[in-house]
Structures are given as C-alpha cells and as structure tokens.
Amino acid sequence: MRTWLTERFGIEVPVVGAPMAGVGAGRLAAAVSAAGALGMIGVPSAATAEWIAEQAAIAGGAGRPYGIGLLAWTLDGDPARLDAVLDARPSLVSVSFGPYAGHVERLRRAGITVVTQAGTTDEARAAERAGVDAVVARGSEAGGHGRGDVATLPLLQSVLDEVRIPG
Questions:
Q1: pTM surpassing 0.85?
Q2: What is the Cα–Cα distance from 81 to 3, expressed in whole angstroms?
Q3: What sign for the dihedral angle of Cα 132, 61, 27, 25?
C-alpha cells in the first residue's frame, strides 16, 4: 500500500504509533518501527534533555524512521528539551497541547516533518497556517488530552474538507 505516510517516511505500513508519554519510550518506538510502521516516543512533562537523547538513541538504533511527541506547554520553560530533539533528528515530531506554532519553523528548518493534533476544524486551520506538514484529527474518543467536542469521523471529514495539508 502506498500512501503519503509510506512515501514520506519510507515505511511499509501506513501507521504511526501514538506518542504516549510515560509508556511510549524508545523500546516501544523501535518495535513499532521494526514492524514497518513509524514508532513514536512520547516525552513526559518531567523528562530531561538527557532522557530524550537516550530514548531517541534506542528508537533510532536500528536505522528505521521514528518520531518524537512533545507537549508544547513544556518547551518554553526548558529549551534544552527541544535542542535534544533537534540533535536526535527524528523523522517526525508531533508538538501539541499548548503554544506549538513558535517551534514549527525551527523543526522544519532541521528537515523534520512536523505535525500537531487538532480537536476541532478551527484548530486544524490554525495548524495549517502555522506551517505544520500534517494535522492529526483527534476526536472525542482519543485518550489522554482529548476533549469531547466532536467524534473522530465527523472531525476528520471536516478537516479534510477545510485544509490542504494531509489530515
């Protein structure tokens, strides 16, 4: 199967693991990537730059593409965290939940594909204006930071109708 995901990242399975902070570290990301998809490291709010570097080394150890998921609200207080992500050079960075727009251009200049999560169509439009490469439509069924605004399928249809970037 050929999709935007398989073509962009050179993966066999068009699946991206969820960046689950606390349970989705380097070993899980590496296993998902080894299976042909794109594994993600979920960076917890208390993680240090050293932890990020260590987990990225584990995830990227086999030379397969992987990604890192960041909580935007944690980045401004500790710039070393974003520096560690840039040094790791993951294929994908998801930066969501807070003021992410100021980090998009720096990540993209480093050659990293950038996505953010959107729980409404307005958030998806804002993500496109911020310059992300793709938007993740996160419906009310999503775990973690999801809101109950709209279910995934109607949200996805609205996002696909309203933005030009992949959703």
A1: yes
A2: 31
A3: negative
